[in-house]
Amino acid sequence: MTSEALHHWILVLDVERYSTRSDPVQRSLRTAMYDVFTTAFGQAGLNGHGVVTEDRGDGVLVLVPPTVSPVRLAGPFVRALDEGLREKAAYFGPRHALRLRLAMHQGLATRDEYGWSGDAVNTASRLVDAQPLRDVLHAAELGHMVFAVSSSVYEGVVRHGHRGVDPAAYAPMSFRTKHGERVGAWVTVPGYSAPPVPPPAEPGLEPGGGSDSGAGAAADAREGADRAAAPAPSPASAGPVFHIGVARGDVVGHDKNVTIHRGERR
Fold first, then answer.
1. 78 within 8 A of 28, measured Cβ to Cβ
2. Secondary structure of residue 216 in the 3-state scheme
3. Is residue 234 part of a domain?
4. Which of 113, 129, 174, 258 is close enough to 209 for a disulfide, judged by CB 3.0 to 4.6 Å?
5. What does the alpha-carbon distance between residue 45 and residue 43 come to, in Å, rounded to a whole number?
6. Cβ-based neighbours of 98, under 8 Å, separated by 6 or more
7. What is the pLDDT of residue 255?
């Protein structure tokens, strides 16, 4: 029987390069993934709140009722997840590296006897699979996970800078789905002051996928907001430096807009 469509905070977690591993390694990675995930959930105080999980093989779909604060998800849960991954990395070799992509969205979801459905679930799944998000995690060689939030979650939760959530560490990201739909989001890598290689915006597409937040970032750049100097590229990454977007947040002693750059490898 199909349930009534209800609002949820929707998280989708996915293991990097899962399908490229052998079957025994995949089984081990799943065990490690659930160990880190369930431990982080408990540390963030999320057990016993009506949270529902659905296995996705190389990841997990998580539906959180609106009675749970999203700040707890974007703050303590993400932090505990990153700490758990760091602990695993201390004794996992490169062939067994466990790194995660995590996406967060919100909206209506419906449950039937087969599982969960809804456009919000689809959007969260597209976000976690987006190539720009994969590229950011690939570039974050010292990181263990990447966390992306939809524009609506950024505007409603992240940008306000609640305790444990730093908006200055996020940068705008935009991409198109296989159906040509524009999707805007914001991305951060725990342990980095800003994503190391934010994805370039599509030609003609504002950072943030046309959302108010992305349009504001582009406007700030056009109006000549103070730009943070980009670090000198190393010999391995020498090449032209170009403007990507603006990470917004409260940065003590500086402007609240920090321009993100990256060097393009030759």
1. no
2. helix
3. no
4. 174
5. 5
6. 15, 29, 32, 33, 36, 85, 88, 89, 92, 144
7. 40
Confidence at residue 225, expressed as pLDDT on a 0 to 100 scale: 33
The enclosing domain of 39 has a CATH number of: 3.30.70.1230
- For residue 80, which amino acid is it? A
User: Is the separation of the CB atoms in 54 and 61 below 8 Å?
Assistant: yes
What is the C-alpha to C-alpha distance for residues 169 and 193, in angstroms, rounded to an integer?
A: 5
| Structural domains of the chain, count | 1
Amino acid in position 215: A
What does pTM read for this prediction? 0.75
Q: Is 205 inside a domain boundary?
A: no
Give the range of the structural domain holding residue 53, as residue numbers without chain letter: 6-197
State the pLDDT at residue 197: 67
Residue 221 domain flag: no
The phi and psi torsions of 8 (rounded to 5 degrees) equal -140, 155
Report the C-alpha gap between 205 and 39 in whole angstroms: 39
Task: Output the CA torsion sign for 167, 170, 175, 178.
Answer: negative
Tell me how far apart the alpha carbons of residues 248 and 124 are, in angstroms, rounded to a whole number: 22
What confidence score (pLDDT) does residue 198 get? 52
233 in any annotated domain: no
Tell me, what's the pLDDT at 259? 41
Q: What stretches in the chain show pLDDT beneath 50?
A: 199, 203-266
- Residue matched to tokens 């689809």: 122
